[in-house]
Fold:
Amino acid sequence: MTIAFPSVSFTRHPIDLEADPLNPYKELGGEMGVRALVDRFYDLMDTSTGAAAIRAMHQPDLAEMRERLSLFLCGWLGGPQLHTDRYGPICMRTVHAPFEIDARTGDAWSRCMSDALEDCALGETTRDALRTAFTRTASMLVNAKRPEALKPQARRTGDLGK
Ligand code: HEM
Structure:
């Protein structure tokens, strides 16, 4: 699926774009583009069997998280700090602390985001930079080990990732 983002007009934003040509928020087309990325991300999380463990951590209705992650990413990607404006400051580690996030779960999160980025109208340089940034951030939120994932038997029976 290809998401059509509104084109960024050089006549409206020439100075900003010259000063910061790789601002991902602008390259995505602003808030609307960020929301499209987040929608794609949660659609993938919702339907991918590899992401079932992450999906199970979320509420049945993803509407609230679509909103929260969109607002957060607007600021994180170089746009306005909409999440802070609405909810106040948050600590990412504290937000994720109630959930058992092992390396496999972190990878699944990054894969969903990487696939969602594939569907965005982004230049390769920005896309690669974002993949790296998301993957690094996800790995920093890993807070649990998963001993059973190390058992050879689990590998043979295809239990990993469940
Ligand atoms: C490492 C894998 C990750 C897992 C398993 C995970 C899981 C979760 C879960 C379960 C929630 C709460 C959902 C709910 O309350 O219904 C959450 C909230 C959130 N996550 Fe993650 N997350 C991960 C990585 C990330 C990354 C990399 C980012 C940002 C780049 C992020 C940004 C957020 C934000 C902004 C919220 C909402 C904060 C709030 O408004 O309270 N998460 N995440």
